Structure prediction request, 224 residues.
Amino acid sequence: MSQAKTRLVVLISGSGSNLQALIDATQSDDLDAEIVAVISNKNAAFGLQRAAQAGIATEVLDHRGFESRDQFDAALTELIDSYQPDWVLLAGFMRILTATFVRHYQGRLINIHPSLLPKFPGLDTHQRAIDAGERHHGASVHFVIPALDAGPVIIQGMLAIRPGDSATELASRVLQVEHQIYPATLHWLADKRISYANEQTLLDNEPLPATGYQMDFTGNDDTH
Ligand code: GRF
Prediction:
């Protein structure tokens, strides 16, 4: 008997290159997962075009139309829930979410962040990693909890910082890592291998370390 496909709603604010990687994975890898809607808080987000091109329902919920963060998040919750997703994936969604929103989806709300968490939560991660003299950097797919960029990691992808790297150069290599680790996570979601319990990520019912499953991309770097 065929099981229902895993239903995903993806939230974006911008270019949506991670969204594209997720779309490509669902289309080419014959996954038991489908993106049922893409929601943006910005009308001009290019990711909306990517979704429409793939035949995915799109929605715009402009935060500027709401008096408070609570009201926006309540409307967002209603919109997301109308699609009955199993998972809600943040992919460059540039809004801080209220604790009420996060608790509503806790255990099925996932984000991708461009650093090796717990290092460098927040913005401007690439420049901060360079300024701190880090040798390695990367990206993390993680469960969202009310504290910003602090939830347990699912997959972390690491690369080497090259001598003389600019933040822009580094960002573009990290983005390539993101495009590997988010679809890899999607495979696990489709295969129902990931869950969340006691503030930990479980893979096949076994807790992962707080920094998640490690994917090493340092070998892709010709300076090493
Ligand atoms: C990515 O770097 C992601 O980690 C961060 O925002 C960026 C989104 O890029 N949260 P894109 O819209 O997926 O191209």
